[in-house]
Amino acid sequence: MRTLEHLFKNNRDWVARMQKGQPGFFADLARQQSPRYLWIGCSDSRVPANEIVGLRPGELFVHRNVANVVVHTDFNCLSVIQYAIEVLGVRDVIVCGHYGCGGVATAVGRPGNGLIDNWLRHVRDVYTRHRHGLDAVSGSDAMLDRLCELNVIEQVRTVCGTTILQDAWGRGQSVSVHGWVYNIQDGLLRDLGPCITGPDEVESLCDAAAQNALAGQG
Questions:
Q1: How far apart are CA 161 and CA 163, in angstroms?
Q2: pLDDT for 44
Q3: Is residue 46 flagged as an active site residue?
Q4: How much is the pLDDT for 112?
Q5: What is the pLDDT of residue 218?
Q6: CA-CA distance, 143 to 33, in Å (whole number)?
Q7: 176-182/189-196 β-pairing
Q8: Three-state SS across 155-205?
Q9: What is the 8-class DSSP label of residue 82?
Q10: Cα distance between residue 106 and residue 44, in whole Å
């Protein structure tokens, strides 16, 4: 029977390092969870949310799925958003995609990948919506980069359209929604532009960010 003992050893070593460097860390962590940020990102193993932004455990509330998609019928994602905003009181929701996303590439490739094709249909819809502009991009890699950016922007639009965000803004709660993309090749984040603080900003800021992405200015 495989017990993955090396992972348990890694865990013990990590605990020892944390206790040595930050005495009382786990006791403090167990007493509260008060993150300011909600991160909605891709499940890709190369994109560790906390490490990218230099935050400790307890400082970032995280939801991840293939291709960082937000869907109005995904009660898993919606429950995370609701809990983050209504219970934890997060002030910033960050939708973060990444270049070289396998999910995005699969969404515009050949079908026949099984169940995942149904999930990635949402990304395919983003491609269809912006197909005219994407087809004008020179080079397949550049096109996929633009699609990664556009996918983030459209997910930002979806987050802002949820009843959760609409209700939060309606009661005067301060919540901003951001769209970022991560470059695995250099480790740097890029702000794609939309920083939405209320319902009246959604369409204009998302449309402007999409235009910049298609122009290679994302």
A1: 6
A2: 95
A3: yes
A4: 86
A5: 55
A6: 40
A7: antiparallel
A8: HHHHHHHCHHHHHHHHCCCCCEEEEEEECCCCCCEEEEEEEECCHHHHHHH
A9: H
A10: 14
Which stretches within 22-130 are classed as H helix? 25-31, 49-53, 75-82, 102-107, 116-129
Active site residue 98: yes
Q: What is the pLDDT of residue 217?
A: 63
Q: Which of 6, 31, 46, 132 is catalytic?
A: 46
Concerning whether 42 is annotated as a catalytic residue, the answer is yes
pLDDT of amino acid 78: 98
Q: Of the residues 42, 77, 160, 206, which is catalytic?
A: 42
**Active site (annotated) includes residue 171:** no
Task: Check 96, 101, 148, 206 and give the catalytic one.
Answer: 101
Decide if 95 contacts 68 (C-beta within 8 A).
Answer: yes
**Which regions in the chain score pLDDT beneath 50?**
none
Report the SS3 class of residue 39. strand
